[in-house]
């Protein structure tokens, strides 16, 4: 009978980034525990996922089976670390390997309007970064076509105290409950003002910015 080899991939070893817990060291320690039939140590060095179906006693019993043994590591371990950044409410992931840190996607805030919540967050970001093109795309067509891009830029400029105040109030209220009634949504952002949205096809658009 062929001997069954146990690898890091099969065992899903739990590892940390400290120098004393490199994957190769963890594997060596695991193999030593396996040779000594040390069920508790095998359990400690194995992932929670596998430990849900195997107890220390199970590992101790399995380690005594002659068809199961550890083998030497064939090559150097490849280390890959990951990180996640919050860019204006958009989660951006990076991975770090021998080539350094790299983005797994485009590191820019996303502008979506598939839900009223998305529309509010996108509108707030667009105001904050003065993305007039995005602001325009979030407005209902009747409002958008009646104003030129130049006029739109002036209206929503942060130099305008009214817009600056609007942005401040929306940032504070963007996570508040939005009241939805069929194709209409309303976000009250002050005692007297609210942001009104309408659903058109598959998107939500701002019908009344103030």
What name does the CATH topology of the largest domain carry?
A: Nuclear Transport Factor 2, Chain: A
- Specify the number of helices: 10
Query: What is the rounded Rg?
Result: 28 Å
Main sheet record: 4 strands, antiparallel
Distance between the termini: 77 Å
Helical content stands at 25-40%
Number of domains: 3
Query: What class do helices, strands and sheet pairing give?
Result: alpha+beta
User: Architecture of the largest domain, CATH level 2?
Assistant: Roll
Notes on the structure:
- It is a single chain.
- This protein is of the alpha+beta class.
- The protein folds into 3 domains: about 5-70, no CATH class; about 80-110, no CATH class; about 115-210, Nuclear Transport Factor 2, Chain: A.
- It is built from 10 helices and 9 strands.
- It has helices at about 10, 25-35, 40-45, 50, 55-65, 115-130, 130-140, 140-145, 150-155, 160-175, and strands at about 5, 70, 80-85, 90-95, 100-105, 180, 185-190, 195-200, 205-210.
- Strands 6-7-8-9 form a 4-stranded antiparallel β-sheet, with helices on one face.
- Strand 6 and strand 7 form a beta hairpin.
- Helix 6 runs antiparallel to helix 7 (about 130-140) and helix 6 (about 115-130) packs across helix 10 (about 160-175).
- The termini are far apart.
- Residues about 1-20 have low confidence and may be disordered.
